[in-house]
Amino acid sequence: MKEYIEIHRERFLEELKDFLRIPSVSANPAYSDDIYKASKFLISAMEEMGIQAEEFSAGGHPIVYGNIHVNDELPTVLIYGHYDVQPADPIELWDTPPFEPTIRDGKIYARGACDDKAQVYLVLKALETMLADNSLECNIKLMFEGEEEVGSCTLESFICSHKSMLSADAFLICDTFMESENQPAMINSLRGICYAEITVSGAPEDLHSGMLGGVIINPLTVLCSMLGKLKSEDHQILIPGFYDGISNVEDDDLDFVVDADLASFQAGESGFSAYKRMTIRPTLDVHGVSGGYSGEGPKTVIPSKVSAKVSMRLVEGQDEKIVFSQLENYINLLAPKEVAVQLKKMAGSNAVQTKIDSIACQSADYALETVFGNKPVYQKIGGTIPVVSMVKQHLNLDPILMGFGLDSDNIHGPNEHFHISNFFRGIETVSLFIKTYGQNKKKDIQANHLTYNLNTQL
Amino acid sequence: MKEYIEIHRERFLEELKDFLRIPSVSANPAYSDDIYKASKFLISAMEEMGIQAEEFSAGGHPIVYGNIHVNDELPTVLIYGHYDVQPADPIELWDTPPFEPTIRDGKIYARGACDDKAQVYLVLKALETMLADNSLECNIKLMFEGEEEVGSCTLESFICSHKSMLSADAFLICDTFMESENQPAMINSLRGICYAEITVSGAPEDLHSGMLGGVIINPLTVLCSMLGKLKSEDHQILIPGFYDGISNVEDDDLDFVVDADLASFQAGESGFSAYKRMTIRPTLDVHGVSGGYSGEGPKTVIPSKVSAKVSMRLVEGQDEKIVFSQLENYINLLAPKEVAVQLKKMAGSNAVQTKIDSIACQSADYALETVFGNKPVYQKIGGTIPVVSMVKQHLNLDPILMGFGLDSDNIHGPNEHFHISNFFRGIETVSLFIKTYGQNKKKDIQANHLTYNLNTQL
Question: Does ipTM exceed 0.90?
Answer without folding.
Answer: no
